[in-house]
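hi!! sorry for the late reply, been swamped w classes. u asked for the two structures so here they r. pasted raw, havent cleaned anything up. first the sequence of the first protein and right below it the tokens
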Amino acid sequence: MVGSGIFISSSHEGRDCLPLLSPSQLLPPPWRETNLGHSKSAFPDLRKMFRPGREKHQTEPREVSASHVAKLSNKLKAILKKKYQSPPGGETEHPFYIHCDLQYPPGESGEGNQHEYIQIEPTYRKRHQGTCSPIGLYFDSELDNERVRIVLTKGVSGIGKTSQVRMMILNWAEGKGNQECPLLFPLPFRELNLLKERLSLIELLHKFFPELKEPGICNLENCRVGFFFDGLDEFRRPLDFKNSPIVTDVTEPSSVPTLLTNLINGNLLPSAAHIWITSRPAAVSRIPLQYINEVSEIEGFTDSQKEEFFRRAINDKNQANAIIAYLKYSKSLYVLCQIPFICSICASVLWRKTFLFNEECDPRALTPVYTDLLALLQTQNQNTQEMAIKLGELAFKQLVKGNTVFYEEDLRECNIDVHVAAVYARVNIPIFREDIGLHQKIYYFGHTTIQEFFAAMWFLQSCNSPDENLRKAVDMALQSKNGKLDLFLRFLLGFSQNFIQSIAEAGYNLSETLTEAVEYIKKKVMENPASPRTLNLLNCLTELGDSSLETDGVHFLKTGIPPDAKYPRAHWSDLATLLVASESGPIDMLGLEVKKRGDEELLRMLPVIKASQTATLSYHNLTEIFCEGLASALTSKVCNLKALDLSFNTLKDSGVQLLAAGLAKPHCRLERLKLSGCRVKQDGFAALAKALKSNPSHLRELDLSGNEPGEAGVFHLVDGLKVVNCKLQILK
């Protein structure tokens, strides 16, 4: 997996024996950021992973010579052990190991419409609560008593997919686990791209493993066979599951995409094949969900693991704490640090800087961090600079096409000599890499963010009219599928800040150009603040050093008065909600007292309310319509709300009953509730009493003054207060 070179284990054993980062080192090699350990318990058991014992609905395979299978297996293990013991791309071992629990929850097979790094923002995802190993994920769930044939694991670039595949293969080859599967064939998608001719499945395997050319391998259907397809997002050819020709014979020639579709849909080796596919999120939907038995997702570092990373990576405790504080102030950059590679970049750049955290500085921009990284890592000479420009062109053209791996023909299209590229790759490993593929070299940037960085650098340098090209880039990013140009745009706008002098010398007033760019982005945000791309546009404004839209959103949040009347109140509500939801921590106080808002507007702002500790929502003409949504918010595990004032709203019994249903849930941690003057009667008091009985340990203060419960209502409430664990201290 492209990433930081961090070793992540699912067990706490051996933590003390892990070596730490030497500050003289820069980036760790990215090939091994996930290490699940070499013990059998730390790796997925293929026998359990695919549950072959539940194959009662499948045809029993024919008998095959056990000695012959063992011979093939031993030969294959020797091949894989030799190949996977050495890291790819010419990298060398790095002395940095960090033990962290692998966040490996069940995932969903679906395609997002944001850049993958926007999808990890707290606004768009809820982190899995707790940690589980791949073993528990794959093997413990029940799927109608049928075996799991195909598992798909997704994760953003640098999170640990390829490294886990490599380590699992090596573990199998060394005989340390998963020995119930005698044959295991890793077939990376980036290498499958190189096979243009028609091949049978057997011939395909011979291409990857020519040492196995012998008759017995044709009997694949007679034994259990594992196929690991790593990097679905890197496969450039279409997978047509609807119109693909049917292939059932392992000796029948066909195109590579046809072989893949028939292997995945079960026409080829329906009983023998067990398939593991890894992919970045954007490519997951290329395989219909009906063929996937299990979907999982590798998540990145938790906040505590980020801090552990930097404290163990930086020897100076004070500097490590300063860097952590610096990154926490940068909300979006701190979120990105759940990606091991981004942590590695920040550690490589920031440990060289002697500073103390100062809130007057603005560490939120991502571009300066990558600029410093390039300056640190890249060998500086004239040839390097020329090569960087050509690589920028390659990066941009391939980024637009959605490609992250390149071949010799791609380099030639950008006038890059493959021999010069090989030399550059050897001396600039963290930036650009060369790897051995099937009969030719494969090239790729050290990480997708580096490709986007180079693409932005080249695009700006090639501009004839900066103002027009910046607007063009914004439009390109908004129209791009899956948000693939979002981070490119962020880097591009960040670069424009640094090119003031060079562009001014060409006769352009850059300050005016940047002002126009800021206004254009703000206009796009306010036209549709609920768009999935809005958060990235706000990050782009951060790169430009502009926070005026955030200020306007906070102003509306506090006063209820739109800063610009030409945009509807609903748009300002959406913006304020997004700003609060993307914060890294809760707000101290939320007061919405200036102007009445009503059910509809406050329902739109429920994420704001959940992120707050105190919400004053009195005199807002709220009804039971709002109470239903509020009750759901109160039961959320991520709700920070401790004090809620709903006084003098027309909630009535029906609204309070809905609210009480939320109060009764164990996840509700509300401590103070004011319902004064809400026209609550007997039934509402009875519902509140029932909630106190169900969840008595959180509510400390309850204000029910100005209502009409009657004797029966009071009786119900007193009955609720008799619960042994009731913590209520103040009742009005």
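now the second protein. again sequence first, tokens right under
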Amino acid sequence: MSNLGDDSATRTAKVLSLPTRAAILAKLLRSGPKTVKEISDIFQIHPNVARAHLDLMVEAGFLATDTRRQAKGRPAKVYFTWESEIGALEEAGIDIPAERQDTTDDLELEMRILERTLADAQAQIARLRELVAERCRDVPPPQ
């Protein structure tokens, strides 16, 4: 029998269970790629704590990583979300008023989180139904 803690619904719930992670995700959606140092500075947390949050979100599929070349030293690892359309629009020269952008970003983020949570909850319910059916098959009828 499989472990209930290994599915995507559990990973999504774990990622979204802390306000700091949700805030980091929102920031990356609005601003584009950031390094561990940038995230730790923005949220005033230790870089190791920031890295743990970011790596968990990568593992759960919320974020991806890349490297950013620097003038000196080795390239920095950056974290970003695939859904960072606002940054792409700005790079293309499309101007979005700040107040409208913030409202749109917040609503889009909330919608994406709710959609993912709903999809994962539906998957979790389906898995629980399978487990109940499996257990019912294994239990002999009462005598």
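hope this helps!! also noticed smth abt the second:
Confidence is low (pLDDT under 50) at residues 91-97.
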